[in-house]
Amino acid sequence: MNWIKDIPKPRASYSHLVRAGDYVFIASQLGIDPETGKVPKSIEEQMALIFEAIKKLLESEGGSFENIIKTTAFLSDTSYHEIYDEVYRSYFDKYPARSTVQAKVMHPECKIEIDAIAYIPKNKNKL
């Protein structure tokens, strides 16, 4: 895969995204600053980095947030849920299906990971 500018390369053996027909599967993104490699302290800042990465990945396939049909968020602590939901809502006009779970996030400084599934037809004339 060609790496997308301003998105940190995976630290493990996975791709940021995989296209299967008209569906695009975006791996969990972390709030890591692509320029410094550092993780901001606040969940809001981490989410801004995550959604910027998701946006760039969607755009690389000709899509946008409107194409997202499902997300999964992994919160390191349920106490972040209220602020997570508030920030999350600011990125969508129409909400996709969503799952939110508490999980031990692989990077110890990260409070959240988010993955997404998008429907981005290769042939733009399709519904």
Describe the structure.
The chain is built from two helices and five strands. It is an alpha+beta fold. It has a single domain (about 25-120), classed as RutC-like (60s Ribosomal Protein L30, Chain: A).
Q: What percent strand?
A: 25-35%
Structural class: alpha+beta
Count of helices?
Answer: 2
Radius of gyration, CA atoms, in whole angstroms: 14 Å
Count of domains: 1
Query: Which architecture would the CATH scheme give at its second level?
Result: 2-Layer Sandwich
Report on the biggest sheet.
5 strands, mixed
CATH topology: 60s Ribosomal Protein L30, Chain: A
Total strands: the figure is 5
Q: Report low-confidence residues grouped into runs of 5 or more.
A: none
CATH class: Alpha Beta
The amount of helix comes to: 10-25%
Listing every helix as H and every strand as E from the N terminus to the C terminus, the arrangement reads EEHEHEE
Amino-to-carboxy terminus distance: 27 Å
Annotate the secondary structure layout:
Blueprint: E1 17-20, E2 23-30, H1 43-60, E3 68-75, H2 81-89, E4 97-102, E5 112-119
Parallel strand pairs: 3-4
Antiparallel strand pairs: 1-2, 2-5, 3-5
